[in-house]
Amino acid sequence: MSIYEELGVRTIINVSGASTRVSGPLMPPEVAEAMVRASQESVSMMELQAVASEKISEVTGAEAGYIISGASAGLTLGTATILAGMDPGRMDRLPDTTGMKNEFIIAREHRNGYDHAIRLAGAKFVEIGMNEIVSGAGVRRTEAWEYEAAITPQTAGIAYTVTPDSEPPLEQVVEVAHRHGLPVLVDAAGELPPISNLRKFIGMGADLVAFSGGKSIRGPQSSGILCGRRDLIASAAVQHLDMDEFFDIWDPPESLIPKGMLTGIPRHGIGRGFKVGKEEIVGLLTALRMFADGEYAAETEQQRGLLEYIADGLSGLPVQPRIILPAGEGYPMLHLIINSQTVGKSGFEVSKELKSGDPGIFVNEKGLPEDTLIVHPMNLNQSRTEIMTRRLREVLG
Ligand SMILES: *Cc1c(COP(=O)(O)O)cnc(C)c1O
Fold first, then answer.
1. Mutate to test the pocket of ligand 1, among 77, 114, 218, 364 (most ligand atoms within 8 A of CB)
2. pLDDT in tens, 83-109
3. Other C-beta atoms within 10 Å of 318: how many?
């Protein structure tokens, strides 16, 4: 009996991707097994994080790294490190930033719901640029000079959300920032694959980069990576670890927290609520190694086969299947364009019916306004694919 049956919770087929609300990716058995093994012995969390830092360094090229409870937590903690540095008094005061530099410059077109995580640490946004293309009133995107024009003595850093077509180019923003001695914090939560992105943004000079552990890396849902400058990662560790310690005998690994940079230690920091267990840390490190070694890339062909099975299984129905292959590394995707007139249901109605059925099928809903169901193959196997095809035939037939 499945553990969810025991609890009386229905299981669902998550073909929406790594979304948190539908419990993210299924972890590879190796990752789940590593977590169980991690749960059977005790460690010093500082020492475990110091080893994690080295392993994250190896795959990202960053000076140091840290494991937190998600990319969102990484953004809050990253902001806190920029605001407080190694000053224990400031660490204790956050998110109250009275008397500190607290402005973060951000392009309007980079703003999104996740930037709440940056504001949470006490940062105040200074918005630049326009969303002219979306508003239909212009042709230009945000430009690097606009960052420079917004810098004041109160500026603490720059927040940048990276996507394959984010503007202005990250290198240009880094150039402006570093000329003014300002750090750049990059939200790269969902920018994997390609594997090369693990190194790309650090390589472009970003000071801190946050990745999700519970998206395409397929680590625990409640895990993420913050990587970047060693001094900033040290501050992140101090603001995240359990700090109920006697300073005189506190002995953090020098590679993670150079003790000489501190005059004392703060009490529990702003990151304390983003606790990660040893199980998440070990699970994420296992998944990160598999992802970085390209072990997931071999599944693309099989995923394409599963999507073709669904597409073929819908023949004769008023739906037009289209398989979109990734340009480089990535997932093949299936778009099901519904002829809503013939079906008598809109994309929204079909998705709602699929979700509430047994088993519930949760597609990616981005295409619903165009009556398109988007199927992400990350969590599919043969039996789920067959069940899903049968259910789609029922709902669309
Ligand atoms: C998913 C996502 C996040 C949040 O990541 P978690 O690991 O779930 O905390 C932040 N920013 C962007 C752009 C994302 O796509």
1. 114
2. 999 999 999 999 999 999 999 999 999
3. 15
